[in-house]
Every structure is written in C-alpha cells, then in structure tokens.
Design brief:
Residues 260-410 form the Glycosyl transferase family domain. Keywords: Endoplasmic reticulum, Glycosyltransferase, Membrane, Transferase, Transmembrane, Transmembrane helix. One of its GO terms (molecular function) is chitobiosyldiphosphodolichol beta-mannosyltransferase activity. Its main location: endoplasmic reticulum. The protein is 40% helix and 18% strand. By secondary structure, the protein is of the alpha/beta class. The chain folds into 2 domains: 10-197 and 435-449, Rossmann fold (3-Layer(aba) Sandwich); 258-432, Rossmann fold (3-Layer(aba) Sandwich). The strands form 3 sheets. Strands 3-2-1-4-5-6-7 form a 7-stranded parallel β-sheet, with helices on both faces. A 6-stranded parallel β-sheet has the order 13-12-11-14-15-16, sandwiched between helices. Strands 8-9-10 form a 3-stranded antiparallel β-sheet. Helix 1 (24-35) links the parallel strand 1 (10-19) and strand 2 (38-45). Helix 8 packs across helix 12 (333-342) and helix 10 crosses helix 14 (396-407). The protein starts with 9 loop residues before the first strand and ends with a helix.
Length: 451
C-alpha cells in the first residue's frame, strides 16, 4: 500500500441516502479509499455517530449532512411524493457544494431518487458513477404495498432502478446470486462481487474483556448486575456481574450458574420477522420450565433502532417470562463489537426482500467467532453453512429446536463439544480474510481505473 502514498490525491464522493452511521459497508469503502490517498466526501444523514476512523481523518474526509425530511400531515401517497422531492433537492444541493469528484460511489437501495440524481450529476460533472448494490429498491417498497411488486409504483420504481442503474460505469454487489440476477434480468454485466467481510474491530475476546463489558453494561442495565453481594461481602471477590466475577488476585471466572446470552441486532424493519424469535423463545421457556435442571435462564439481547421496536416491546411486556429475560440496548460501535464476542449464540432474522443479499450482522458475528442461527432464504448458503458455522431455520419450531440443542445442560454439555469444535474451525477460517484485504483484492482494481 505504500506506493499509494505517492499518488496525487483524487476526489471521491460517497452517497448514502440513509444514516451514515448505520451504513457500515459504505463507511468501510470510505476508510479503504482514505487508505489509498483519496479525498473522500460523504453525503448522507447523520443520525448516529460515524466510525472514529472517518472523524479522525477530518482533513481528507468531509461529511455533508442532508436535511431530514420534515414530518408533514399528508396522505401516504402525498408523503411519498413530498419525501422524494425533498430528498432530490437536498441531495442536489449537497452534490453541487462538494469538489468535483473523479468518481461517485452510491449505495442502492434506496434508488429513488438517488440513482437518477447521481446519474445526471455525474453526466454534468463528467464524473464516473459506481453503484454498490445491497438489494433492490422495488422489492423493499413492495413490502409495504398492497399489491406487492405488481403495484404500479413498484413497477415504476423497478424501471427507474433498472434504467439508471444500467448507466453506471461500474458496479459492486454483495452476492454471486445478485450478480447473476443483474446480468440475466437487468442486462448489467460489469458487476463485481464484493462480499461483506468483518473489519479487524470484530474479533474474539478473552474472558477479561467479557467481564469488562458486563461490568460496563451493569451500570445501565440491571440484567448484567450480580443478584447478590454475598461473595463481595466475604471478601473473596473484587467485582461481580451476573455472568462473571473477578477475584482479588484479578483472575476472572465465569459463574457456574450463569444465564446463557442470545444476541441479535436489527433495524426493526419489515424484512425481519421478530415474531419468529418471540414464538421460539416462548417454546424454549415452556421446555425449560419442564426441565429446569437441564436448561439455563436465557438473556436475549436485541440491539438497534427502528420503526417496529415499540410493537415488539409491547408484545414482550404482555407475556409472563420466567426463564427468559430481555434487554434492548443502543450501543456504540466498540461496545457492540465487544458484546457480540461475549455472547453464546447469535440470531439473524433477516430474510431479504429480493432473496439476493446477505445480512452483514452475520458477517460481524462470524468475525467475533460467534455461531449463528439464521433465517434461511435463497442465497444464504453463500455465507452460512449449516452445521459448519451455524444453523438455519425457516420457522419458530426449527429455531426453538436449535436453541434447545445448543443450550441443553449449558455450559457443560459434552454432547455438543464436537459441533462447537467444527464451528470454531470454520469461523477461524472465515476470520482469516478481513474487509481491508478483501477490498484490496476485489475493489481496488475497479477504483484504480479512475485514479
């Protein structure tokens, strides 16, 4: 990479018509471009804090915040029209305030109005347009439309997405299945598959770091606090959480009767059915109550923000739980990485509106060495290999069976040791390729055409 330091710096622009802080892949693109001597300007909404690396390199990286769409008392259709016009004008204003970029990298979805605006901007400024396909806009819109993909607006969105998407100079996508679909059904052939990979932030951690994150979270969430101070009062223990304890010689131990930790992250959107998880946990609860000596208490941690969170919280509160408890924190990036590595099993309920994208949360969990139960859909096999690095399920019964298998006689079930060793082996192989190396191998050559 050293030779890049001697290249003349070029200007690059990244457009995210969403929250920059919750668009990790586009932030990783920005970090990689900064590593290769680019001046990067990012356009998007800033609802959460971006990665520290982007803030540190402020002299070469500028973030242009779009003005949020005002909340107006219109009908749903008029709201959609108003939102499109507002975002178009806001995006145009931001684009014409930056230095002319050599190339513009845009995230899709959302493709409306992004692709059209970015195409005409690049045409006027003679910049190269590169699209990073994460999914399809029209399939996401179809989730909220009465007639689904047959809806007139969805069909129009698909035409816009196909027409302006096909005019880009280069393309990235997240799966081989999407690459094939873009080629066969959209006539876009110059697509490079760039799999999501974990950054070096997502790593397995030792028990000392697990204790530290539990101690930190215990200050805000009672579920992480020790239930009794007996050990402390006997002067045998220096610090204690619900899961770990630090002795006076600074040795950290797991508690023998600790709860198991199940973790999931979500944006609380329609492409994740948390009803499946709730039913599976209810089944686990019933089974655990009948066989209380064989199954531990289970702490279910669900991180993230989104529109369906309040509805899920309401459902939880209406049920009586004995063996299962919940905590739904909003974590900063560092704590999120650490907590993933401290959990016992991950759950992913993402099912993909197109069936052609892969959940980055699973990539993050694998980076931390955390096995995953993932909802099965068309191309999930490009990431999750059943009984090699995780489990797949298609309904709550199957998920419940996996939970019962994994947590029976927790944490000392000799019957699943062989499965755990297989998981560890494959997860370590996955961790051997991180974002930076993968980007340098598969993406740098595309950008180099415009360097």
């Amino acid at each position: 990479m050293m030779e890049d330091l001697f290249l003349p710096a070029i200007n690059a622009c990244i457009v995210v018509l969403g929250d920059i802080g919750r668009s990790p892949r586009m932030q990783y693109h920005a970090c990689s471009l900064l590593d290769h001597n680019c001046n990067v300007e990012i356009i998007g909404y800033q609802e959460t804090e971006p990665l520290e690396e982007l803030c540190r390199q402020h002299s070469k990286c500028k973030i242009h915040c779009l003005t949020p769409v005002p909340d107006v008392n219109f009908t749903p259709k008029l709201k959609l029209i108003f939102k499109t016009i507002w975002q178009s004008l806001s995006l145009l204003r931001a684009l014409f305030s930056i230095n002319r970029p050599k190339f513009l990298l845009v995230q899709n979805p959302p493709g409306i109005p992004t692709l059209m605006i970015c195409y005409f901007y690049c045409l006027i400024m003679r910049s190269k347009l590169i699209i990073d396909w994460h999914n399809y806009t029209y399939t996401i819109l179809a989730l909220s439309m009465k007639d689904g993909e047959r809806n007139l607006f969805c069909r129009f969105a698909r035409w816009l997405e196909c027409y302006f998407g096909g005019k880009a100079d280069a393309h990235f996508c997240v799966t081989k299945a999407m690459q094939m679909d873009l080629n066969n059904n959209w006539g876009i052939s110059n697509v490079t598959v760039l799999y999501d990979r974990p950054t070096s932030r997502f790593q397995p951690i030792d028990l000392y770091k697990k204790h530290d994150i539990f101690m930190k979270l215990s200050k805000s969430y009672s579920q992480f606090r020790a239930e009794t101070r007996d050990d402390l009062e006997k002067m045998r223990v220096k610090e204690s959480t619900a899961f770990t304890q630090k002795l006076h010689n600074d040795i950290v131990q797991y508690k023998a009767d600790r709860s198991a930790i199940l973790i999931s992250s979500t944006s609380w959107t329609p492409d994740e059915d948390f009803g499946i998880l709730l039913k599976a946990l209810e089944a686990y609860e019933n089974n655990a109550l009948q066989h209380s000596q064989d199954f531990p208490n289970l702490l279910c941690i669900i991180t993230g923000k989104g529109p369906q969170k309040d509805e899920f919280v309401g459902k939880i509160e209406r049920m009586k739980w004995v063996k299962v408890s919940f905590v739904m924190p909003w974590l900063d990036f560092e704590d999120y990485c650490t907590l993933l590595a401290a959990a016992d099993l991950g759950v992913c309920l993402h099912w993909s509106s197109s069936g052609l994208d892969l959940p980055m949360k699973v990539v993050d969990m694998f980076g931390c060495g955390l096995p995953v139960c993932a909802y099965n859909f068309k191309c999930l096999g490009e990431l999750v290999k059943p009984h090699q690095n995780g489990f797949v399920f298609e309904n709550h019964q199957q998920l419940s069976e996996h939970l019962n298998f994994w947590f029976e006689k927790f944490p000392n079930n000799a019957n699943i040791n062989a499965t755990k060793q297989v998981f560890i082996k494959h997860l370590q192989e996955f961790q051997g390729l991180r974002w930076r190396e993968n980007w340098n191998t598969h993406a740098l050559g595309i950008f180099n055409k415009y360097f």
